Amino acid sequence: MGNRLTQIATRTGDDGTTGLSDGSRVPKDHLRVQAMGDVDELNSHLGVLLAEPLPDDVRELLVVIQHELFNLGGELSWPGGELLKEPAVLRLDEALAHYNAALPRLKEFILPAGTRSAALAHVCRTITRRAERTVIALAATDPVRPALRQYLNRLSDLLFVLARVLNRANLDGLGGDDVYWQSERMKRLDNGN
User: What is the pTM of this model?
Assistant: First the structure.
């Protein structure tokens, strides 16, 4: 891995390029840099979610995910390197199975709403999907291990499930259930009723 930062303002990016961990430089709009930025944005939004009241087990899981996302971003910045370990994807699969088992089966689409923590989990989910799309686009031109794509795919599913869990946890007193899309309500509104 490259050198640790000892100063933040290096001015080496003033020419529109940025350095990767292997010492190479790429334009700041390179797909690799975009993927790194999407993962960084996701991790930052998880930090906002972690500032909310959360069940202890969910909090512990999200902290682990933050560290794994840092590894994932580090691997994106290190072409040919490997930082995200294989058990990370399995850990998400296990968490998905665990949390999904306690939820009622979905009978309708749900809206990204409810408690603040659930809504933030949905924001994280959508950023994860964007990061996944960017990594897929990058993999079409540069080598990227499949584990990175798989991790992001599982994580977006897990964040959807965790949003449902957080609505039911009702730690802010504003939730209790999913917020369902009401297609019949929309039909009535469209018909003026």
Answer: 0.84
